[in-house]
Write a structure and sequence with these properties.
Shape: elongated
Number of strands: 12
Largest sheet: 8 strands, antiparallel, barrel
Strand order of the largest sheet: 1-3-4-5-6-8-9-12
Oligomer: single chain
Structural class: mainly beta
Distance between the termini: 42 Å
């Protein structure tokens, strides 16, 4: 666009002089890319492969505040696309990533603001768009089986946050508030450690079944400015991490 506004044109001879080296450079570049693809492509001639993942999970919240305590796990699931990009020439290493819809949750308890009333419970239900960034180490194929280990991190972006919250009414009776929108109290970004292991079973050709176990441990604060008020009226910003372990099920094509 910048050159289009200059109002000047190169002579025809100059254009021809430029076109020849550009043509040679283009041919050279295409040849280099072709040779690189041939030399690095693995997994039956492919440098990359893609598949679909569905993984049930158990999620829990780990509070980092004295009065708050974890109260068990909740059931969720992960669904989406996964991809392996081969590294090196032997096919034993891959950059593994994906684009996933991740549903997790967790429960925690906290003392009520009224002395003598039992601890109250809150259950959070979270949804993230998650992108794992991991290195996958694979064995050579043994029969139809290939075993792998996986290590890396993941980046998650919160798109929904609901909670079932126990609170007290005017008579100090416990009341459950269901599906409360708590998106304003939840951090938009979630980073986590990813550790996994499993195996792949090759059916035929490029089609393989993946089965594994993956641990996702959050290391950023789940909450953003959310405060807890203790029985003495003191306010403390809540810190907690969201974690889960899943049964990874997928098919590569």
């Amino acid at each position: 666009m910048i050159f289009a506004n200059c109002g000047s044109r190169l002579p025809l001879i100059a254009l021809k002089m430029i076109a020849k080296p550009m043509k040679k450079a283009t041919v050279t570049l295409l040849a280099a890319l072709l040779l690189t693809s041939i030399s690095t492509a693995q997994n039956e001639g492919r440098a990359a492969r893609f598949g679909i993942k569905l993984a049930p999970n158990m999620g829990w919240v780990k509070p980092d505040v004295k009065d708050l305590k974890g109260a068990g796990a909740t059931i969720g699931y992960t669904f989406g696309l996964m991809g392996d990009f081969m590294l090196g020439e032997n096919g034993n290493y891959a950059f593994a990533t994906g684009l996933l819809l991740n549903n997790i949750g967790g429960k925690f308890t906290y003392p009520s603001s009224v002395a003598g009333v039992k601890d109250l419970e809150s259950s959070v239900k979270l949804r993230y768009i998650e992108v794992p960034i991991t290195l996958k180490l694979k064995t050579n194929e043994i029969g139809y089986m290939t075993y792998y280990g996986q290590l890396g991190v993941s980046a998650g972006f919160n798109i929904r946050a609901k909670a079932d919250i126990e609170t007290l009414d005017l008579n100090n009776d416990v009341v459950l508030m269901e599906d409360e929108d708590v998106a304003d109290d939840v951090s938009l970004f979630k980073a986590a450690l990813v550790v996994g292991a499993g195996f792949e079973f090759n059916f035929s050709g490029n089609t393989s079944l993946l089965v594994g176990v993956t641990y996702n441990g959050g290391f950023t604060n789940l909450y953003d400015g959310f405060e807890y008020t203790d029985v003495n009226g003191n306010k403390t910003k809540v810190k907690a991490t969201a974690n889960y372990i899943e049964l990874s099920l997928g098919v590569f094509f």
